[in-house]
Amino acid sequence: MKIALIGYGKMGHMIEEIATQRGHEIVLKIDVNNQRDFTEENISKANVAIEFTNPDSAFENVMQCLEFEVPVVSGSTGWNHKLEEAKNYCKKNNGSFLHTSNFSVGVNIFFEVNKVLAKLMSSQPEYDVTMKEIHHTAKKDAPSGTAVTLAEQILSNLPRKKNWVNQSASNQEELSIISERTDPAPGTHYVKYSSEVDDIEIIHTAHSRKGFAMGAVLAAEYISNKKGVFSMKDVLNITSS
């Protein structure tokens, strides 16, 4: 498989390492220094593009790939307000698109555990829920995309919480997400339910970026010959709700 890397920072380098180990070829690398090379002629050499940039450029990068009819996998976070527009464009034009807030296999299993726990807690009003996420200081969005996904899952399954805030909650209807930035920290996410008698906590801790990179390559392999809008649940064949 021939891959275009849109974004060639630390994640891009790790994806390149994993992809080449799996027998794939990197045919295009785009970063801030050669954006003029992001052309239809150049990217058409790829079977799939993997996009890891930042919230300010992710939407345009994804749309460019879709316009050039190249399947695109995106792990950039912080642009959820434009995500549905990209998905709708993909469907309308029979493209291929996969976006996730986290490619890690472990995190996607963590997502499923989070939803089940929130459903169980919906009938246990004595428990309050809070969240915390810790990332490296170069992380550009807060809360992290993974934390937002976890929070939205909780809101969907725990009716007593109405919205999340990136600070300590001021009332019982708010779900608090505390964001900490420290080095080195690939990423840790906590969801904690507390009552007067006990606590229940689920935690995911990434030890390196390798898990994210592997997931991105698996996602690229999955959508390279498919049409539609996909998620990591499709890639990992996760069938639970």
Describe this entry's structure for a reader.
- This protein is an alpha/beta fold and 241 residues long.
- The chain has two domains: 2-103 and 210-236, 3-Layer(aba) Sandwich (Rossmann fold), CATH 3.40.50; 105-205, Dihydrodipicolinate Reductase, domain 2.
- It has eight helices and eleven strands.
- The protein has helices at 10-21, 40-43, 58-67, 83-92, 105-121, 145-157, 210-223, 232-236, and strands spanning 2-6, 25-30, 48-51, 72-74, 96-99, 128-135, 163-165, 174-181, 188-194, 199-205, 228-230.
- It has a six-stranded parallel β-sheet, sandwiched between helices. Strands 7-8-6-9-10 form a five-stranded mixed β-sheet, covered by helices on one side.
- The chain is elongated, with a radius of gyration of 19 Å.
- The mean pLDDT is 95.
Could you give a short description of this structure?
The protein is of the alpha/beta class and 241 residues long. The chain has 8 helices and 11 strands.
The biggest sheet, with number of strands, parallel, antiparallel or mixed sense and barrel status, is: 6 strands, parallel
Number of domains: 2
Q: Quote the beta fraction.
A: 15-25%
Report the structural category: alpha/beta
Beta strands, count: 11
Write the CATH architecture name of the largest domain: 3-Layer(aba) Sandwich
The fold-level CATH name of the largest domain is Rossmann fold
**Alpha-carbon Rg, integer:** 19 Å
CATH class assignment of the largest domain: Alpha Beta
Tell me the number of helical segments per DSSP (H or I, 4 or more residues long): 8
Low-pLDDT stretches are none
Order of SSEs: EHEHEHEHEHEHEEEEHEH
Helical amount among residues, as a percent range? 25-40%
- Strand ordering within the main sheet: 2-1-3-4-5-11
The CATH superfamily label of the largest domain reads NAD(P)-binding Rossmann-like Domain
The separation of the N and C termini measures: 32 Å
Overall mean pLDDT: 95
Shape, per Cα inertia axes: elongated
